[in-house]
Design brief:
The chain crosses the membrane at residues 21-40. The protein is mostly helical. Helices cover 78% and strands 3% of the residues. The chain has helices at residues 2-14, 18-96, 102-114, 126-134, 143-172, 174-178, 198-202, 205-240; strands at residues 182-185, 192-195.
């Protein structure tokens, strides 16, 4: 093809047809430019196609992350509510000030077992973190959804910080409980039992007042995780509608 064009140029020059040669040269330049533009367009199309595939992949993975967040938060809400109930029931029993029935002792033992256990695996957004680190967030074309993802991710970090603060507050009060409650662990069954004089606890206002704050702390655990669960479900619906 190049030899063909070169032959035409040489013939026009040899015949002193300069005007025709000039027109031909301009036409050849135009053809080259058109060829370059077509090549760029094809390359852009290929890159766009790759971006669409990557975006679809990311969206599917984000949906999976949100599905895990829904399940994780639901399990945490259920557990936190059961702990909150046992703590509030135990406070009422302490304020009542009478001996415990067998069923009531199970409630108190459950509260003493679980109220300090504040470290859990909170929901995560690993795909969003990957997109953020690699600069791929632009692949989500819907700006509103992209902003909601950012707000949701930031809220998870806030909840994590709040949980840390609540956990630190609970741990800071262990001194009050350690003087009244002794734990025993069976190395074979891994069962945990507690030894305490309930009548003494009922007469200790410092103990009761300190323990009463656990209802506030565990109310916080339930409240924030319920909101995480609700936001996870709402955002998953919007993410699933992108594909």
């Amino acid at each position: 093809m190049l030899k063909f064009f070169r032959t035409i140029r040489q013939r026009l020059l040899s015949e002193n047809k300069f005007n025709k040669y000039l027109l031909y040269a301009i036409g050849e330049i135009i053809l080259v430019v058109i060829g370059i533009l077509i090549a760029l367009q094809i390359n852009n199309w290929n890159e766009k196609r790759k971006d669409v595939v990557r975006a679809s992949n990311y969206i599917d993975r984000i949906s999976e992350d949100l599905e895990r967040s829904v399940k994780t938060s639901e399990n945490l809400v259920k557990l936190n509510k059961s702990i909150l109930k046992s703590v509030t029931d135990t406070q009422k029993l302490l304020e009542r000030g009478t001996e415990l029935s067998a069923e009531e002792k199970e409630t108190v033992d459950y509260a003493f077992l679980w109220f300090p256990r504040t470290t859990y695996q909170l929901p995560t957004m690993l795909t969003y973190e990957e997109m953020k680190a690699s600069g791929d967030l632009y692949l989500i074309d819907d700006i509103e959804v992209r902003n909601k993802l950012a707000e949701y991710y930031n809220y998870l970090r806030q909840v994590e910080s709040i949980y840390d603060k609540l956990s630190q507050d609970i741990e800071s009060q262990f001194g009050v409980y350690n003087t009244k409650i002794r734990a025993h662990t069976n190395p074979e069954t891994l069962d945990i039992t507690f030894n305490y004089q309930f009548s003494d606890l009922c007469e200790d206002n410092v103990f009761i007042n300190t323990f009463s704050r656990m209802t506030i702390h565990w109310r916080g655990f339930v409240y924030f995780m319920e909101r995480v669960n609700r936001l996870s479900k709402e955002l998953k619906l919007e993410i699933d509608n992108l594909n």
